[in-house]
Amino acid sequence: MKFVNVTKSVCLVLMIGLYGCVKETPSIKTNNMPKDPIFKEYWLGESKDYMYFKKGTWWVYKNMQNGKTDSVYVTLSKLDTSVVKGTESYSKHRTYTIEHANMVTKSTRFNKFYDWYSRQQNPDGTNIASNSTSWVRNKSAPGGHVQPCFHTPFTLNLRSDMPLLNNDTSLILFGKTYNNVKLFKLPQDRTYPDLLDEEPSNSNFYMYIYYAPGFGIIKYEEPPENKSIELVRSNIVQ
User: Fold this and answer.
1) Which sequence spans correspond to the domains of the chain?
2) What DSSP letter does each residue of 22-69 carry, written as one string?
3) Does residue 8 have a pLDDT over 50?
């Protein structure tokens, strides 16, 4: 009888010990198992050559349909780096070092502002963020909203909302040759420069935007309307 009691006691102790050693099984609902730390760095890279310019930069564009011009200049530019940690149970092991930029330009002719900024990677995303960069712009109200306008890597048709149609082309405007030009196709909306849409458009299709390194946007084009504005001259500070 004593032997049985001892056996039961030993079994009970073993069961308690084994139970205490059992680790939590991860599930879709909880997914809160401890994970090895993940450190990722996200730099703007060559996208800055196309998208980021400092105060002192200005561009003069010409509407090729009616001959009118507009001067656009940088009123604010900021480049910064942040360290961001995940806050959710599934992302607390993630630490991202993120370079981000913000730029504001102003149209002289129409006295309107345009915000340009890089989107930051989010460590609380469902998956680990990819090494890509996207930029958006917003025309100050009225008549503007946030619109994706540029992305890296330079992979053709990578994004359906702003497909890259040509990764490396050359363009001659007013006698100047621009190389390594990227051509993006974007939905048409009122976020675009007023110089292009000074005359109301009869269509609501799409537009092309041409970017050159060291110059930014060199041409806007609306093929359905046979309308475009082109860069006449510029002063660049990067």
Assistant:
1) 2-235
2) PPPPP-TTT-------EEEEE--TTHHHHH---TT-EEEEEETTT--E
3) no
